[in-house]
Design goal:
By secondary structure, the protein is α/β, with parallel strands linked by helices. The protein is built from 9 helices and 9 strands. The chain has helices spanning 9-16, 31-44, 62-66, 79-88, 127-140, 159-164, 169-178, 182-196, 214-223; strands spanning 3-5, 52-56, 71-76, 95-99, 112-118, 141-153, 202-204, 226-237, 243-256. The protein has a 7-stranded mixed sheet. A two-stranded parallel sheet has the order 1-7.
Amino acid sequence: MAVITAKDFKEVYRAKARSRDIRELSGRSDKQLTEFVNSEILTKLDINSRMSVLDVGCGDGSLLSKIPAAKRFGVVPSIQEAVRLKNSYKGKPNLHFCVSESSFLPFKGESFHTTICNGVLLILRSESEAMESIRELGRCTLPKGQIWLGEIATADELRTKRENYGSSTFRFLVFLFRKRRYKALLYWAIRLALSYMGFSDFIVQPNSHLVLKGETLVKNFTEIGMTIIWTGKHRHRDRNGQITTVESRTNYLLSKVGFS
């Protein structure tokens, strides 16, 4: 256990797989927020017990485990995550996990009624990788199947991080102090101290993420045979239960009408 400065988000989640709490794999330490995001997705999807579901970038597996489908597959980018998930959900029927990149999925074409990819595109390395990932999601989905693309970043969310503290843990704590965010300061100071004492990892995440423009996405959807059923801004629930709209992130529910 140590302070880890991750060079990319794949390394971030590889490190999170060592956490005592599997919920860290969701990218959120707040269980209630993860449950809220899961419920937001499930209310938009039409899934029954006869369907097959693929969750690309399935995080802690909590969304997939709640879906009453006949066949459920979760994809993660590292063997460490896959092992952790397999051990955590051992004995769960029809629930499988495998290692793969979102841009090259190990499934036959038209294998799933529903394909989910939430909070993944923004951590990919390039726009071309994101577009290839969308194409792969379409390839794996049955005709007239539904595809959920969630938490796509349409604006730079890490500008403040780069300008104020970058990868420096000390400057991060000073930033929280200056902003008078004392509860957050105490929380992160304790986590940092625990990492230095060897009890847990403190992961310094990358300073940038992928931003995708809406017009680029819509053009890509049309070109590969997807139609938009619904789109809307992502919603966030804080620890006090207050729900807010995240203007920098967009969700899409798509239908596969053709594929090229």
